[in-house]
C-alpha cells in the first residue's frame, strides 16, 4: 500500500470509519536511521488508533524505529514480513525474511524497546517454503520472541517471477490455512488479510479469526469502510457528502502547507463507486486537481456535479 495509505488518505478514512485501526505505509527503517524522522512519522492526531509499519532486518535499527514510534505516540509498531517487492527484498526486508525466522525473532524482540504493542504482518508462505508446517513453526518462533498479534495475508509470495501486483492476485487465497492458525494458536490474535471485497466475506471471516485487514478495497470503494464498520460495531454511517465536507478544512490546511491537490483527492476517487455520476466525479477531481492553483473548490465543484445525478 505504498503511496496509498498516506496521512491524507488515513485522515479521510478516519472520518468514514472512526473505530477501525489505521496502518501507515511501510516505512523503511533505514530512512529513519539516516534521514529526517519527522518527514516519515508525522500524522494528524485524528488518525488514532494508528499503527506504524516498519520494514527492516537490523534489530538495532528496528529498536530505534520502535522508540521513535513511541515518541510519536503511535498505538502499535508493525513489522512487515510480507511485501514481495524485488526492491524491498534487495534491502533484506519484507517477505524474504520469512526465510530467516531466527533473525525475525531478534527483530521482534528489538521492537519491544519502544514499549508499545508489536505486531507482525506476514504471508502464509514464500517460494517453495509454503507448507503449513513451515508457517506454523514460523509463527511459533515469533510468538516465543514476544509477538502475540499476527496479520496474515492468505497468499504465498514469490520473490521472483511475479510483480508485486501479480503477487496480490496470482497466488491463490487460502483462508482455511489462516483459520487453522487460529485453531492451533488460540492464545494469539490472528488477523486475516487478502482479497476482502464484500461485506459477506468480511463478516464470514469473523467466525474464524480475530480481525480482518482491508487494503485495496478501502481505496477502490472507501465508503465500504463506513458501511462495514457499522455492520460490525453498530451505528449509522455518515453520508458521503457529510464526510467530504468534514474533509474540506483539512484539505485547506494542507494546501496552505504546499501539498498538491492531486495527493489530497486520491483517496476520494472511489467514494461514489456504484453510484450514478461516479465517472463524472472522478473526472472532475482528476482534471481539476491538475490545474495551477487548484484548491478545495475542486472538490466542492465535483460534489455539486455528482449530486445532480
UniProtKB/TrEMBL annotation:
Catalytic reaction(s) noted: 5,6-dihydrouridine(20) in tRNA + NAD(+) = uridine(20) in tRNA + NADH + H(+); 5,6-dihydrouridine(20) in tRNA + NADP(+) = uridine(20) in tRNA + NADPH + H(+); 5,6-dihydrouridine(20a) in tRNA + NAD(+) = uridine(20a) in tRNA + NADH + H(+); 5,6-dihydrouridine(20a) in tRNA + NADP(+) = uridine(20a) in tRNA + NADPH + H(+)
Interacts with tRNA, annotated site positions: 80, 165, 168, 279, 282
InterPro entries the record matches: Aldolase_TIM, DUS-like_FMN-bd, DUS_fam, DusA, tRNA_hU_synthase_CS
EC numbers for this chain: 1.3.1.91
Keyword flag Translocase: no
GO MF, one annotated term: tRNA binding
Named cofactor requirement(s): FMN
Pfam families for the chain: Dus (PF01207)
Protein origin, superkingdom: Bacteria
Keyword annotations: Flavoprotein, FMN, NADP, Nucleotide-binding, Oxidoreductase, RNA-binding, tRNA processing, tRNA-binding
Residue intervals of the DUS-like FMN-binding domain: 1-302
Top-level EC class as recorded in UniProt: oxidoreductase
NCBIfam families in the cross-refs: PRK11815.1
Function: Catalyzes the synthesis of 5,6-dihydrouridine (D), a modified base found in the D-loop of most tRNAs, via the reduction of the C5-C6 double bond in target uridines. Specifically modifies U20 and U20a in tRNAs.
The protein's name: tRNA-dihydrouridine(20/20a) synthase
Organism: Halorhodospira halochloris
This protein's encoding gene: dusA
